[in-house]
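Suppose a classmate hands you a notebook page containing two proteins, each written out with its sequence and a corresponding row of structure tokens. How would you begin to make sense of it? This section walks through that situation. The first entry is reproduced here exactly as it would appear on such a page.
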Amino acid sequence: MTIAPLDLFALDNHSTEEDRAIAAVVKDYVDTNIKPHVADWFEKGDIPARELARDFGSLGVLGMHLDGYGCAGTSSTAYGLAALELEAGDSGIRSLVSVQGSLAMFAIHEFGTEEHKQAWLPGMARGEIVGCFGLTEADFGSNPSGMLTNAKRDGEDWILNGSKMWITNGSVADVAVVWAQTDDGVRGFIVPTESPGFTANTIHKKMSLRASVTSELVFTDIRLPADAMLPGVKGLRGPLSCLNEARFGIAFGAIGAARDCLETAIDYSVNRVQFDRPIAGYQLTQKKLADMTLELGKGMLLALHLGHLKDTVGITPEQVSLGKLNNAREALKIARECRSILGGNGITLEYPIIRHMNNLESVFTYEGTNEMHTLVIGNALTGIAAFK
């Protein structure tokens, strides 16, 4: 008799029956509609993004933890578990949902006017409108305060100029939430992608997140009305609070990729025979599997604890950093170890491991690098900011 890695930890009392039911629906969709195709999407470097967005809208996972405006209003833990199941399919698929819901929709929901919310959120929740989030620039990733994108007043209007880099959904988006320097500090703007002067250039030749649309956005004298600005926040607190929402999902999502790798490695090791016995019967293989199960379970417990905090007393950015730092790091280690168990077969897209491993190299870096989250925690412990 065997047991699944996470079942060893008997985790059901850390989530509600409703949370698990939502996750089960997402898992069924991923198993049926994502996993059979994602290796081909990864190899081609393309996905049916708009079709997937409509499917995810029908599933109710777009902005699922937001209230009203067609959003499902689930718990944060349910959202985290859904992100886990999506990333068990592929990190790029989870990124599509995360950018739509936790970045673009969250920004409008938290900082937009009632008119903004009514105009954009219902269509985005249904997946009929695809959004993206423009913060990172080619020369300003970890230090967004240095951004060069700017918006200047021209009468009642705004004139937007600049560019953003590594933008998920950018080339298929209908609307972009763009952060820009103004005379009043950093402000957010709702920018329809059909606006004259808006260009989205798809980034090719990626070796990671290939089943995802990644783009450079370029803004050339885009004229925006006065009410394009999000009035509810000024400064970097706005985009950084959106990133905290997305990082929370990553803390769960990375566990999904790691779980898929580990389950694949266990199944492979049981069936792969060398020297007249399954390689699962050798002590070195069992040590690898046991060690990875421990790290997977600890990461899952951390994610569920963060979900409980977020759903009850609230969660701090430093606590989100704990989850993102640990789980992205450990998931990547698990993927690499699982790849070694599969030997030469581990580098082919016949199995999901090398795809997850390549994707996790990006997850390790984006939404705050490993180094930056380390220093956020160090700052919390010492009161000294080492990154300024």
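The notebook's second entry, a different protein, reads as follows.
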Amino acid sequence: MSSDVQDRTEDEAKVAIWNDPRVRGIFFQAVLVLAIIYLAYALVDNTARNLEKGNIASGFGFLETTASFGINQVLIEYTEASSYGRVFFVGLLNTLLIAGVGVVFATFLGFLVGIMRLSKNWVVAMIATVYVEILRNIPLLLQIFFWYFAVLRAVPGKRDKASLFDLFHINVTGLWLPNPMPQAGFRFVVIALVLGLILTFFVKRWADKRQAATGQQFPLARTALGLIVGLPFAVYLVLGAPLEWGLPEFRDTGSMLRRGFQLGTGLQVIPEFLALLFALSLYTASFIAEIVRAGILAVSYGQTEAASALGIKNSHTLRLVIIPQALRVIIPPLTSQYLNLTKNSSLAVAVAYPDLVSVFAGTVLNQTGQAVEIILMTMSVYLTISILTSVFMNWYNAKMALVER
């Protein structure tokens, strides 16, 4: 009898353990991890077998092979004799360039349009509304085609130009600007700029603590302007302006075949970059504008009334009262738009802008056939960029969060 009781007690203990949610959770998670490991192993093994059957070489040794093709925009030294590994870095830097500049333009324009939509001026609000409703409802790829084929192909031909102040020129070969050429001593101007940014950071921290303690506002904007712009400019003048500008040279005499801008003079911004930048910035800004509008509307109207009662100007109310509180609503979806813009830059292949997808996952893949390695590297790059962007924006969101006192 005692044996039956002991067995029954052990069975009840086993049932009790299994009914514990933590035990069940650990068990199913362990099963899931084992299943993922098996699937990963099966995928790798199957890929290796297929590559072996197709007599396709595997590994990353191809990165040392000579590329033997040119790229029309490079931010680092590159020639046709460079390796495929060099092509990877050229495409990566071009991707980071278009994504970085696009994020800056889209953020500025998105905040501007979002605030315009809340304007009491009917014309201003309607202009912003029309912009948002049109741009965000047209596919991005069509917008890229519009800027590239309809707008930038309507400018003067390569043997002609349209100019502004005889400094900025445009034709079908791109936008031509004065090319900055640093001279000896210019590094001290850069050092002064970095120093100005660091000092501005510490001055802002001090000003915030001072305002929280005393309520007195410090003229931070003018101070930052003096440190970031005034200090480097003063160093620039003291050193005798160690920066020269190379102006674009346009040959307008001689045979028609030799007319046009001379390569190696001025700074050329290729039309593919311009089309992609305009499309990405304007398209993403239409979504950011709605995010900004929603964030501002999420702030209680009582905050605006309180600021008005204190005699604060509308512009100061928006900048010092409304926007700081709205950021806690704006930043999370804003992060998603930054990620979307970065990933949407891969559409550059449609207009042959030499980004990572175009020159590495496109041209290099076609020449080498190393599909697995190339696609894996390309996916890893976009994953890394997205994770770093998310980490930074999450940190910034935590810094801007309202702190309960």
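A careful reader of the second entry would note: The mean pLDDT is 85.
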